[in-house]
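Posting this for the archive.
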Amino acid sequence: MFSVKMTDTKLLKDMFQAIAILVDEATFNVNPENIQLRAMDPSRVAMIDFQWPKTIFDEYQCDQPQKICVNIAELLKLLRRTGRDETVQLTLTPDTPKLQITITGKYTRTFNMPTLEPQEEETPTPKITFKTEAKATTEGLKQAIEDAQLVSDHVRVEADPEKITLQATGDLMGATIELKKGSDALLDLQTQEPSKATFSLSYLAEIIKAASATSEIATLQFANDMPIRIDFHQPKEGKLTFYLAPRIEVE
């Protein structure tokens, strides 16, 4: 049997919303200690690596390790019906292939949602040697990305010992956004060597917008023309990490 109960329904909704930007059907690995998900988007440009320990939940029961696959969009429809001061309980028993979602507040409603065939293929963690690590506020990142989106659909991210620069170039306009080390937006920056890579703004914008609802601080790691890793700091040793492949630029 698997069952979890949570009173912080906003955090639960925000987390599933962050997952939904990359995957439609999510296969969660659940065990007595935590819930995990590692999956790539259909185009294999971006990856999510998620883990919540049992301590994040008010109640947590998992008798044995198992895989649970659900349609994230359909689950979100139900979770969005939750209000303040309500509780959500998710339950899956061995005798039924349906996930039971119980929302309790001024009244109680229970939904039964079919589970899907789990994805058996495991998604490996990328093995990358990063040369730059930066700690930034998610709000500062979100604003910088939105500025870059005004002029282009991609952005070049560059780092030197003192700042991170976002360069966006479109058909009509260009933009240069600087986040200086020690500023309100860029809290810390460590570089082994100058680094730069170009990324899709649509992916970056969606990832940062969705994940910023669960976290105020993010750690970025990247190197020359390599995927970027973005860790969004989570409560109680939870993990929400995204990897985004660089855009290949043709000279």
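The first strand starts at residue 2 and ends at 6. The two ends are 56 Å apart (CA to CA).
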